[in-house]
Amino acid sequence: MFTSFEELQRYVESEGVETLDFKVTQLSGSWRHLSVPASALSEKLFTRGFGFDGSNYGYATIEASDMVFIPDFRTAFVDPFWSRKTLSFLGTVHEILPDGFRPYAGDSRAILDRALAALRSTGCADSFFVGPEYEFYILDSVSYWNELNRSGFEVDSLQAEWRSSDEDGLGLAVRRKGGYHLDAPSDASRDLRADMAAAIDELGIPVKYHHHEVGGPGQQEIEVAMGEAKFLADGTMLIKHFIKNMAAERGCTATFMPKPFYGEAGNGMHVHMQLFKDGKSVFAGPESNYGGLSDLALNFMGGILAHAPALSAVASASTNSYKRLVRGYEAPICVAFATSNRSAIIRIPGYAKAPEDRRYEFRSSDATANPYVLFAALLQAGLDGVRRSIDPAKAGFGPVETDIYHADVEKMGLRLLPQSLDEALDELEKDHDFLFADDVFPKSFLENWLTLKRKEAKEVNDVPTPKEYELYYSC
Questions:
Q1: CATH assignment of 113-472?
Q2: Among residues 213, 366, 427, 456, which one is catalytic?
Q3: For 53-78, what is each residue's pLDDT tens digit?
Q4: Whole-structure pTM value
């Protein structure tokens, strides 16, 4: 938003900004924040930053937890979800040294910066473009409880099928998995979704399209135009912030949770990807190649497929993710590639025929991922495939042109994706050297990530569920 501190200073004074807000990305991929009055604005804020407890962010141990966050005035955006005019800023985490501080190698944004630098150093490409698809539910109410003597949750959506018997209903309930491209009046959140898309567009992130998704109780999708990975990693954080807060302002709630409903479509965050050099796609190849992709694009795909089980630990980063990655819900279950086949983990869009549009889509990821870590890990896996010249077909990953959900995957020789977060973390423990290439990911990241996610998995696995009472109470 600003190219100099002086420009920022003039804006704060002329526009009556009252609060400066600093967004810090924690390891899990969500924001925490700290705010100061605009009267405290000084250049020192953007050179020396402010101290914080890194152990609460997943970056440090309690006995050595002091860290520094240094905001970047170039990332400023007006945060409209305050009653007082507020400017928010992103930035990077630094670790403290005896004689000062330095950028912390495990900071999410720094990891992606190093991955992009490693790409440029190869000479095969100079930019990594991604195109995330954001799926989420807009719901009218949600409550949950985890107590010693009771546990459960209750979610409501005025357009859901269970509302079809309401005495004052209008007959607009949407049947299960019947919401894809639904039109008005059943598309009850269309105006809110359009407002969300307009707000995202105003942030400088072009929206490709938006629509009601498959899930009947109010599933939505907003897809943005492809852009540079760092821009859209920051953009993903902004988009989630705006969607959740705009829903709250309208008296409803938005969730990116991968599987909020049993028996309904889950929320993914598919990632389309391309590599460019000097402004030209290097994914375009001869028509004789599969999908019209270049050898480099196929090798890059081969690397992602080879490391897909380990990638699951960062791409599908919650216990809930693995309730989405099941048969029959347009979510992948196997390590395979194909054209126009939504049951494969990598899909080549059948409609992307022009050379400049040649790309593919990674389909197992969801919004519980830290976007900086996700994009960096995909890039590292792909570059490993380029270095090793991995041919995805010769490696046995396909192409698979049949419905994988109803296929005998063992007979086809396909590998299943991990079926739980613990299993994915096991895969990451076995296969992580590709992340360390060119010092992109520090070893501290692996240690911190495994600690954080093993703890989450244990918290879920240790708790009895209502379903277990149904199955086993009278055993």
A1: 3.30.590.10
A2: 213
A3: 877 787 876 556 788 999 999 999 99
A4: 0.95
